[in-house]
Amino acid sequence: MAHIVVLGAGLGGVIMAYEMKAAMRAEDRLTVVNLGSTYTFVPSNPWVAVGWREREDISVDLEGVFAKRGITLRPEGAQRIHPSENRIELKDGSSIDYDYLIIATGPDLAFDEVPGLGPESYTQSVCTIDHAEKAREAYEALVKAPGPVVIGAVQGASCYGPAYEFAFILDTALRRAKVRDRVPMTFVTPEPYVGHLGLDGVGDTKGLLESAMRERHIKWITNARVARVDDGRMSVEEVNEDGSLKTAHELPFAFSMMLPAFRGVPAVAGIEGLTNPRGFVQIDRYQRNAAYPNIFSIGVCVAIPPVGKTPLAVGVPKTGFMIESMVTATAKNVRALLDGTEPRAVATWNAVCLADFGDQGIAFVAQPQIPPRNVNWASQGKWVHAAKIGFEKYFLRKVRVGQSDTFYENLVLDVLGIKKLKEIHMDEAAGK
Length: 432
Ligand SMILES: Cc1cc2nc3c(=O)[nH]c(=O)nc-3n(C[C@H](O)[C@H](O)[C@H](O)COP(=O)(O)OP(=O)(O)OC[C@H]3O[C@@H](n4cnc5c(N)ncnc54)[C@H](O)[C@@H]3O)c2cc1C
Known about the structure:
By secondary structure, the protein is an alpha/beta fold. 27% of the residues lie in helices and 25% in strands. It is globular and about 65 Å long.
């Protein structure tokens, strides 16, 4: 009998638990350690921030569903993992041991890296449901007293889709509230061009997003480093190719939502051989850590090198489809170890993303992630908004009932007509 522990019950960790449960042997035990017992669907946070969703709409209590599926939930959260002892120290001082550990702890939000950034200071965030609810209060104040808005992401961020998404959703919400004419909007990003997305663009994301921003009167500053934020004012340094200062901008704002850079959570950061200097978990092509081969990792917390050189640090996003592929590969690889064989399943890490604008949107597919690609496709239309709602409903249902099949493979890829896009592939022999 083996004890398998999944650390983190977010978008990746919950489906990891379901797929691992389906893949493990009847005699094995599965425990999920999380901060709390509620799952919330992060991709819907931008809708919460403009009042289109309530917390309850996108939350699932995991206790009942996990109990029904025979999965133990430990909501205390991890204080620190001790990989050389195969032990997790929990926040209440107790410990649990594991035979196999799958780390799915998502991002630690590095607001402290820019003075004045974040919901404890002067800018809003949509990274967590708590932040999105706070952003909604600020949004309602903006509707009452319209003024300039700054949206975007700071240097080192690795999540750009939601920044664009939020700019367009806010534009739609403000138009519906009939105050858009009194809200000048600026998009600020470290990307070298609009639509880079940490992926050096996908299809014509540059053209599509620039055109959508022009149509919606959203100005932009690229190659932008946020030096500091003060109450109602953002100091932004636009840089040249070589990183030297091109123009300094002082941007006044009545409302601002800026995505921070991500790093690994404190419970796993700074462990020699396990994590890189930013605290992300180092893994091989089988999602497995080399120093601690009974540890796997999936989701935003894994280390991925940037796609090419850019004047400012621009991280690679880890989106739902990539995460689902990491989950499926990991379940197969842990099962291989349980069976006494070697891991062979490789996640393809293709990027598939639906960026909602509130009334339409842009979808893109990058296969593989790093150009040149076999599939490099982006498209715009009202159907993207409908597909995003479909994604939300399908995913939340899957979490509530404890299903383990994959959304994109079954729905979106059919719509996109690229069903041959494989979620994972198997190496012929281990280590190939
Ligand atoms: C605003 C936003 C919108 C996004 N929209 C999309 C989208 O539309 N489509 C898409 O494909 N991707 C989207 N993404 C990217 C990505 O899919 C999400 O970030 C996704 O939630 C990442 O899943 P994850 O499991 O890696 O991390 P998370 O979902 O963040 O889960 C991490 C979990 O680990 C837990 N945890 C953290 N520390 C500990 C600890 N010490 N002990 C125990 N548990 C811990 C947390 O409580 C949490 O439950 C979006 C990201 C953001 C921020």
